[in-house]
Amino acid sequence: MSTIIEARNLTKRFGSFTAIDDVSFTLEENRIYGLLGRNGAGKTTIMQLLTGQDFATNGSVSVYGQSPVENSKVLSNVSFIKESQKYPDAIRAKHVFAAAPNFYGNWNAEVAEELIAEFRIPLNRDIKKLSRGQVSAVGVVVGLASRAPITFFDEPYLGLDAVARQLFYDRLLEDYALFPRTVILSTHLIDEVSDLLEHVILVDEGRILLDTPAEELRGSASTVVGKRMDVAAFVEGREIIHTDGIGGLASVTITGQLSPAERAAATAAGLELAPVSLQQLVVRLSSRENTEGTEL
Amino acid sequence: MTAVPALSAPSAFNRVWNVVRLHMISKNTFIVIPWLILFGAMAVSLIIPLLLAFNGVPREEFEKGAVNSWAVLSPMWYLCAVAVLAIAQFFPFSLGFGVTRRDFYLGTSLVFLMSSVPTAAVLATLGALETATDGWGLGARMYTALFFDQGSWIANFFIFAVIQLGILFVGAAIATVYMRWRMWGMLVFWLGAVVAIVLALSAITLTDSWPVVGETLANLGVIGIFAWTLVPVALAGFAGFFILRRATPKN
């Protein structure tokens, strides 16, 4: 495994607002990363710092061991597709696809053509007249066909319908298998991508809450449901990330793997154990501040 | 262990040239629309003397007025928009393709040069034709109106080139202020510009220097004035570069 991106004590302030707060992490080559978090958590800012589009207030970013800022050696290897990408008014989709090969050394015209047909992108209409989903599709096609060694997708499918999103996931995996690369995907649709991700970085309020292989996260938390007293007894001494309840019933989410013996004990106590999906886990962890201090 | 870049960057020239190609990808902006505007204005400039002649206005009368025609300047207003959009819309677009700010600005400047210099040559040539054909046979004046009648092709070419470069680089520099500092940048910039102009006018008035100013300008002549104009244009060009180096393509 070799490190391709490293952020060290990365901080970004906009005036008095701290968007990214002393964050450090490393990304390995040829993996698919999920950069997850709520709106305004700092996902886009992190990506902009990693691609040299924005300047860090403090700390450092290195891509291939170098700063990405104004560095064409690094940037020739990067494709950054973002939801907020602006296109000039006078431009049509066909212009974008005609220009893209100049900038991406690995551009594959065949892949692009297939995807354009599959996403049904109108090539000859001004981009400003395309629907939100069609504009997103333009970005997705560029991101996939560029086959850049480092590919960032920032909420790439805003407005895309379910069929188009599934198409994106399928084609990403397919092409990733053929041409392994480092993919960093930020998204709100966590359940949809959870099978795709190899590693999850969860950001909240400019800090990293989780930086864990996706495999480890699956089954890393469970929800215990049952009578209040029984649940309380079972979860004692464990890390609780969420509690909920109506009347005499309680539902508590705890972290940590449960051993078979513990599972048996829970069942014996009349408790129900439910696995926590990646999305639920992210929701629980990101909204923790609100639930902390809630008495069981 | 640190990964090594899989792809090498194109040569410096190719990177800049890629930006040029990006600007030129839709032929309308720099080629089709300016010429449509110009030839539209030319059609009007030729129809008017025909109409006046039809109405019995003597040709000498008309020629006196035609010298004040602004028709040749009509595409220049459009150029202001081109300059601003070349930065405001193509900066975020180019950075989306992994272009550095440096390469973007150099490429954009090259586009400005590549569009103004040949255009100036064509305009000066049309001016020469206008003179040779005695106003297209109608006494019309368009390419030799205002101060565009400096006698020689090269002088007219120079003036046309300076005007276009000035509009493009100054417009682009103002757009970089917006890209870098957004609304507040615009406010401070325009307020500053207004204050500077008012101060300059007051200083000249209060020191009774208008005759001196008039005399200096007269001594410089049209060519001299345009030659000096190149100084602020070049300053705007450099300022745009340094302002954009720290700008971010955000909304």
Task: Summarize this entry quickly.
Chain A is α/β, with parallel strands linked by helices.
Description of the molecule:
The complex is a heterodimer of chains A (296) and B (251). Chain A is of the alpha/beta class and 296 residues long. Chain A folds into 2 domains: 3-217, P-loop containing nucleotide triphosphate hydrolases (Rossmann fold, 3-Layer(aba) Sandwich), CATH 3.40.50; 221-291, 2-Layer Sandwich (Alpha-Beta Plaits). Helix content of chain A is 35%, strand content 30%. Chain A has helices at residues 43-50, 72-75, 93-103, 109-119, 132-145, 162-178, 190-193, 214-217, 228-235, 260-268, 278-286, 288-291, and strands at residues 3-14, 17-28, 32-37, 58-63, 78-82, 150-154, 182-187, 199-204, 207-213, 221-227, 240-246, 249-255, 272-275. In chain A, strand 11 (240-246) and strand 12 form a beta hairpin. Chain A starts with a strand and ends in a 5-residue tail after the last helix. Mean pLDDT of chain A is 91; it is low at 291-296. Chain B is globular and about 85 Å long. Helices cover 78% and strands 0% of the residues of chain B. Chain B has 251 residues and is mainly α. Chain B has a domain at 18-26 and 75-133 and 150-244. Chain B is built from 9 helices and no strands. Chain B starts with 11 loop residues before the first helix and ends in a 7-residue tail after the last helix.
